[in-house]
Every structure is written in structure tokens, then in C-alpha cells.
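#lab-general

N.A. 3:47 PM
ok so I finally got the sequence cleaned up, no stray characters, all 75 residues accounted for. can someone with queue access submit it? mine expired

B.Y. 3:52 PM
send it over

N.A. 3:53 PM
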Amino acid sequence: MAQSDDAGSWKANAYVVKSRLDLFNNFTYFLSNPLRGDQFHQHDDRLLSGGSLSRTFTGWFAGRLIETILGAQGR
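B.Y. 4:20 PM
back already:
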């Protein structure tokens, strides 16, 4: 989302990410456990969210157009 006015503009965005992972590893195969193998299971289930908000100021300094941005992000 963006909104402009005479002094500059505001920008905001947000996100949500849901991820799931099932990872199976077997680096040594049957070295440590000759009957069942050495495989192990790693499960990951995440929900992340975050966003940012910034304010852009435009103006003139020493005869040049300048742009200053202030903002914050969170996760």
C-alpha cells in the first residue's frame, strides 16, 4: 500500500508465510545400525509474519532534489 501527499509518501506492506518440511537424512547408510539403517527424520512446521512501514520525505537542499526515507521493519 502507498499513499502520497505534498511532503512525500507513506509505504506499508505485510506478509504471512506458512511452510512445512519433512526431511529424511541418511548420511552413513547402514554404518551404525546394519539392521535398520541410520536414517533420521527432521520435521519443520513454521508460520512467519512481518511487515514494514516507511515515510519518504522529498525536498530541496543546496539546489538539489533530495529524498529521505525513515522506516521500520518487523518479523
